[in-house]
Write the C-alpha cells for this entry.
Amino acid sequence: MKLLITGGTGYIGSHTVVELLSLGHDVVIVDNLVNSSELVLSRIEKITGKMPQFVKADICDRDALNDIFSTYKPEAVVHFAGLKAVGESNDIPLSYYHNNVTGSVVLFEVMAAHNVKNLVFSSSATVYGENNVSPLDETMATSATNPYGRTKLMIEEILFDLAKSDSDWSIINLRYFNPIGAHQSGLIGEDPNDIPNNLLPYVSQVAIGRLAQLQVFGDDYNTPDGTGVRDYIHVVDLALGHIKALETLATLSGCQAINLGTGNGTSVLQIVDGFSHISGTKVPFKIVPRRAGDIATVYANAALAKDVLGWQAERNLTEMLEDTWRWQSTNPQGYTE
Ligand code: NAD
Ligand code: UD1
C-alpha cells in the first residue's frame, strides 16, 4: 500500500515506518521536525535497507499537503503528527489547538479533496478522563482534563462526524495506553527534546546519568504499593497494531475507536526496580507529592483490538525495559551525529 505517515520521524511514527517498510509498503513521511530529528531517517534505512521518502512540512500548510497528495498519491494516511506534552498544553493552549486540531482539519480536508478516505489516527487513553474505573473499554464515556487531552477528544469527535457525513470514510481512532521501549536494534527510540515528562524516558535518563534523581509522584494511591499504576506497551507492539488497523480499514466503514494496551498494570516502583535490575544501576528516587491531574490506576480492556484487528500485545515488561535501556545506553544523548 502507498501510505502517508504524518509525524513519521517521531517516536511512535518511526517504529511504525520500520514495520511498514519491512512489509514492503511504500511510505512517505511528512513531519515539520518540531519534536524529532532528521537523523531518524538514516537509522530507519539502516534497519530496513530502505530510505523512506520524506517531506519536511507542517500539516497546517494546505499547499504543501496538496502537493504531497498530488505527487505521491497515497491510498491511506496514518496521522501521528501532533504536540503531546500535557503540562505545556496548559501553558500554550492555543498552540495545541492550532497545531493538533486545525492541523488535523486541514489534513482531513486535503484528504477529502484527493478522495483519500482511509485513516488511522493516534488518539490516547487520556480521552477516558478521570472518572472511569479500569479496565477501560471503548464503550465508556469520554472527557478531558487538559488542553492536550481535549485536542485528542475533539479530533476523535470530528472524525466520528466526518464518517457519519460520508460513508466512504474508513477511520480507526487508536487509543494508546503508555508506549515505552524501543526497536530491538537500539537504533531508534524515544528522544525527548527537554526534560522528559513521562516516566520511562525520565528513569532511563537518570540511569544513564543525565538526570540526578527520579521524583515519584505520590506513594499514597489506592494501589498495591501506593504508586501510580499504568498499562505500559512496547512501541513495536503498538506499531504492529497500526499495521493491523490499516489492513482492517478495507473491511470497515465508518469510524471506530480501539484501545491499544496490554490489559496489565505496572506501578512506578515496579518500573524503577525492573529498570535498576536491567541497567545494573540503582535508579535513585524520592517520593514527592502527587502530580496534578494524575489518577491511581489506568489500564486497558484490550479485547476489542483482538476481536476487530486480530491484534494483541506480545512483548513483556522485561523486553520493554531491556529495549529502552539498549537505546538509551547506546545513544546517551539521543539522536546525535
Ligand atoms: P512525537 O513527538 O515523537 O512525534 C510526533 C511527531 O509529529 C514529531 O516528529 C513532530 O515533529 C511531528 N509534528 C508535530 N506537529 C506537527 C505539525 N504541525 N506538522 C508536521 N509534523 C508535526 O510523539 P509520539 O510519542 O511519537 O506520538 C505520536 C502521536 O501519538 C501523537 O499524536 C501523540 O499525541 C499520540 N500519543 C502519544 C502517546 C505517548 O505516550 N507517546 C500516548 C498517546 C497518544
Ligand atoms: C501522561 C499524561 C497523559 C498522556 C500519557 C502518555 C499527565 C497528567 N498525563 O500520563 O495525558 O496520555 O502521559 O503520554 O501528564 N511518574 C512519576 N515521576 C515522573 C513521571 C511520571 O512518578 O517523573 C508517574 C506518574 O505519576 C504515573 C506514572 O509515573 O503514575 C506514568 O506517568 P507518565 O509516563 O507521565 O504517563 P501518564 O501519567 O499515564
User: Anything to note?
Assistant: The chain has eleven helices and 13 strands. The pocket of uridine-diphosphate-N-acetylglucosamine (ligand 2) is lined by residues 86, 124, 126, 149, 178, 197-199, 202, 214-217, 228, 230, 268, 291, 293-294, 298 (CB under 6 Å).
